[in-house]
Each structure stands twice: as C-alpha cells, then as structure tokens.
Automatic annotation (TrEMBL):
Function of the molecule: Catalyzes the reversible isomerization of glucose-6-phosphate to fructose-6-phosphate.
Main subcellular localisation: cytoplasm
Protein name: Glucose-6-phosphate isomerase
InterPro entries: G6P_Isomerase (IPR001672), G6P_Isomerase_C (IPR023096), Phosphoglucose_isomerase_CS (IPR018189), SIS_dom_sf (IPR046348), SIS_PGI_1 (IPR035476), SIS_PGI_2 (IPR035482)
Source organism: Roseburia porci
Length: 526
C-alpha cells in the first residue's frame, strides 16, 4: 500500500533541508571536479548517460535524497502506475502510457479488455494501414499515392509527435526510411492552416485528425478549415482523412474518415506520443518499423525507472535533484538545452509535459500545498540559445538550473573542418565549455566581466539522435516529471487549469460578456 503525503511532512525532507549546501565553484575545481565528472554518472538506455557532476550535490546530499525517495515511496508509486491502479484521482483514471511501449508489471484489464493487447492491436492496425499507403494500396480517389501526411491536433496531440518527427526527419532520409513528408496544423490562427495548405499538394495529402476528447475547439475548427479546402479542390474529404481519438469520443463512430485508430482515457494527451497519437503520423512518415524502434527505446528507459537503487535510476535521481533545487535551494525555473538541431521542438514538448503535469498548487486531495511545485520550463537548442538568453543564465540575478542534452555524432554526417575542428566538434566543445563556465565561473576585478559561477547543470550524453534514443529520452523526461509529481504529492495527470480560459472564450464568441471581458472583446473587435 502506498501513502500519499505532502513533501513537507516527510522527515527525510526536513533532514535534506539541513544538509550542508555544496559550493559548486569549489566542488568543480581541479582534480575534484574531474573526479565528480567520472563518478557522478548513471548509464541510461540506448547508450545514454546521465551526468550530474555539475549539480549542487555531494555524497551527503545524495544520501539524503536516497532517503527521501524511500520515504516518499517513489518506486512503489511507479509500481502502482504500471500495475494499473487509479492514480489519476482527479479524473478517476488509470495512467497507462508505459503500456503503449511494453509490459512493465501485471496485465491490466479495464473496460473488459487487456490494455496491453488493445494498444498493440492499434499499433498493428496503424502499421497495416501505413504499409498499404506506402505500397499504393490505399490511395486518393484518382488511385494516386499519398505523398504528404498532415497532422491536425493541438497540445499533446501535436507537440510530442511534431518534436519526434522533426528529430527523426533527417535520420530517416539518411537511412532510406523516409516515406512521406509530415506537416502539422495546431493553432486556431487561420494563418497556421492556410500556410500549411498553401505549402502542400492537397490532392496527394492524407490528414490525420488527432483529438483524444474529440471536442477541442482548435482541432475541430482546423478540421473544418481543411475539409473546406478539400471540397474547394473538388475532393472528397472522407477519402483524405483519418482520425486518432478515444473510443468514447464523438469522432469515434463518424463516417467522415477513411479509418480511425484509438487510444483511451488512460493515456494523457502530453503522454500520448507512444500511443496511436504519435503512431499514426510517425508510421506514415517513416514506416512502422521506425515507430517500433522508438517504442523499444522508450520501454528500455522505462525499465531503468523501475530500479529501486536510486543512484542507478536516472529518472528518479534527476527528479530528486530537481525537487532539491526547487524546494530547498529555491530555484524557480529549469532550462532544457539540447545541443542538437534535430531536437529543435523538444523543449516545447517538455514545456507542456512538465508544466501541464506539475503546475499545480493543490495536492492529490485538493488541499493547498505550502511549497513550490513545478518550475517554469523553457529552452532552445544550443548553440542558438547561447546567443540569446544565456547572458541572464550566466550573470542574471536568478539561478536557473540547466538540463543539457548532447550527442557525439551528427545525424546527416556532412561536416566541414574549419580552423582544425569539425562543426560537430565545435558544438560539443560549446556544451562542455558551458557546463564548466556555469559551474566554476571566472573572477574578474571588473564586476561587469565577473562570473560568479555556482550555476548547476546536468547533461544527458548520447551517440546520435535515432528512433531508439529519442524514445529513451522522451521516457526519461516523462518519468522524471511523474516522480516529481509523487514527491510534491500532486496529481500530474489532469489539467483542470486549462478549462477556465476555454469557458470564457466560448462566452466571448457567444457575445455573453460583461465587465473586463466585454471591454477586451470590444478592443479585439470580436
Ligand atoms: O487531444 P485533445 O482532446 O484534442 O486535447 C488536446 C490538448 O488539450 C488539453 O486537454 C489542454 O490543453 C491537453 O492536455 C491536450 O493535450
């Protein structure tokens, strides 16, 4: 049995607060710093390593974090998740996204079906459909092959699949598994749909309407936008559109689609990349085998999250250090900084994953918590970020913990040697330099040129962005966020905070406004 307690009621948390603070500038200097880099590292799946040498921890703090993990029952709570207990108490739902990529615990039967079987069945149906599209067995009305796939969806029905598509596009081209170009329409801004429609050949495009609820205003509006465009081009929309939704949604039984693939209520939107939500577009774009490799990578990382040895569990330790930074050291934000152009949109996905999951001020029982929860998440790929917001990170008044991700090899392989080094070497040199610059700083008599240092970071280092590694990386962050939610005793799997704005927007559109809402509606000419 697990017990859900607030972080500040745990004795081990009070002990953690008493642990001596680590002076990172001193800890990372000289031979001691070198030793930390060698020792403070945990192997991850698919050749990754999580290195936390430049975090503000030492053996003493780590010991306190291990005790906190035990008292907060992090392993037991993860077990409750993958064994199908109703841990999303706000919505009275199980949380089964791990099961879309493998079986970690016991079989879970819900709604009269074995859930693992259900997810695999959907994957097989998608694989079959994608193979038929690629083989020209499913075509447009003129019998011609579809060349482009366009996903229509928003939030979790957009960000994860889009980030993964972009991460693998060049890899797939290089490895001859690129089947169809993918585009994405998400924003209700008409310029989003119009620009995508202007950039494609609609007659050879297959649209994937993705909405778990089947009720999201932006997605349904964009569906109509696209259907209009298809009609105007003299095409039958139902021959160009498939749906990915939950079996209980209004879209599930519609005849408007060529095919429908399902997830269910136990897969949260932001955790849905490994379900049919990511499966459809990624299998169409790169082939089902590539999607299967992505799932394999995610499953391998999930298995590591089960490790009860905290110091060998990368997700658990990452989560614990993050809570230490937030609740003991008082840092307000975390920057995610992938040194890889392929991970261009990964920070945007992590923003939803983390902030929609852990941006809560009440605990699992609806009581106000008296400690900070989820940090502000932001990020950009390096080295672009260096020439943008790193000034504040190095010399600003706030300390922002950093989460670097780096790869030894590029994806495309085309490179150039300038002044004795390749571009890839320059990229990697920058990330190494940044870690040390942030941690150690540099004294200068000129205050303006002085770097105080003491700015903590971790780095996940891998070989290359591939389907397996992107799967492992995604699972790492999903599980980190989950463990942090356990520590804060909040429900990371609902998102009531997005409702109020939706309700008020509906009132504006129905002209049922008064006060400030009416004034703003008038100012915006609605
Ligand atoms: O897939 P749906 O139901 O259209 O929802 C889209 C997104 O809207 C939200 O419910 C709220 O923003 C997200 O959690 C979700 O990912």
């Amino acid at each position: 049995m697990v017990t859900w307690n607030n972080l500040d009621t745990l004795a081990s948390f009070q002990d953690l607060k008493k642990a001596d603070r680590v002076n990172l500038v001193e800890a990372m200097a000289g031979e001691n710093g070198a030793k930390r880099v060698k020792n403070y590292t945990i192997p991850m799946a698919e050749g990754f390593a999580f290195n936390y040498a430049a975090k503000q921890v030492d053996d003493n703090v780590l010991e306190a974090l291990v005790k906190l993990a035990k008292e907060a029952q992090l392993s037991e709570k993860f077990k409750a998740v993958y064994n199908g207990e109703v841990v999303n108490t706000g919505e009275n739902r199980r949380v089964l996204h791990h099961m879309t990529r493998g079986q970690l615990g016991q079989a879970v039967e819900a709604d009269g079906v074995d859930k693992r079987k259900f997810y695999v069945e959907q994957q097989e149906r998608i694989a079959d459909f994608a193979n038929k599209v690629h083989a020209g067995e499913i075509t447009n009305a003129a019998g011609e092959k579809f060349t482009t796939v366009v996903q229509i969806g928003i939030g979790g029905s957009d960000l994860g699949p889009r980030a993964i598509y972009l991460a693998l596009e060049n890899w797939a081209k290089k490895n001859n598994t690129f089947k169809m170009e993918a585009k994405f329409i998400s924003n209700v801004d008409p310029d989003d749909a119009a620009a995508v429609l202007n950039s494609i050949d609609v007659a050879h495009s297959l649209f994937v309407l993705v909405s778990k609820s089947g009720t999201t205003l932006e997605t349904l509006t964009n569906e109509s936008f696209v259907k209009d465009a298809l009609k105007n081009a003299g095409l039958d929309a139902s021959k160009h559109m498939i749906a990915v939704t939950s079996e209980t949604s209004p879209l599930a039984k519609s005849d408007d689609y060529l095919a429908a693939f399902f997830m269910d209520d136990y897969i949260g939107g932001r955790y849905s990349s490994s379900s049919a939500v990511g499966g459809a577009v990624l299998s169409l774009a790169f082939g089902p085998e590539v999607f299967a490799q992505f799932l394999e990578g995610a499953h391998e990382e999930d298995k590591l999250s089960m490790n009860e040895d905290v110091l060998q569990n990368p997700e658990m330790l990452d989560a614990l250090i993050g809570v230490y930074e937030r609740n003991v050291l008082g840092y307000p934000a975390t920057a995610v900084l992938p040194y890889s152009q392929a991970l261009n949109r990964f920070p945007a996905h992590l923003q939803q994953l983390d902030m929609e999951s852990n941006g809560k001020c009440v605990n699992r029982f609806g009581e106000r918590v008296s400690y900070p929860t989820g940090p502000i998440i932001f990020g950009e790929p390096g080295t672009n970020g260096q020439h943008s917001f790193y000034q504040l990170l190095h010399q600003g008044t706030d300390i922002v913990p950093l989460q670097f991700v780096g790869f030894k090899n590029s994806q495309i392989g085309t490179d150039v040697v300038i002044q004795g080094s390749t571009s890839q070497q320059k990229l990697c040199a920058n990330v190494a330099a940044q870690i040390v610059a942030f941690a150690c700083g540099k004294s200068d008599e000129n205050r303006n040129k002085n770097f105080e240092g003491g700015r903590p970071s971790s780095i996940i280092i891998g070989d290359q962005v591939t389907p397996k590694t992107i799967g492992a990386l995604l699972a790492h962050f999903e599980n980190k966020v989950m463990f942090q939610g356990f520590l804060w005793n909040i429900n990371s799997f609902d998102q009531e905070g997005v409702q109020l704005g939706k309700v008020l927007a509906k009132r504006v559109l129905a002209h049922e406004t008064d006060g400030a809402l009416k004034e703003f509606s008038d100012l915006l000419n609605i």
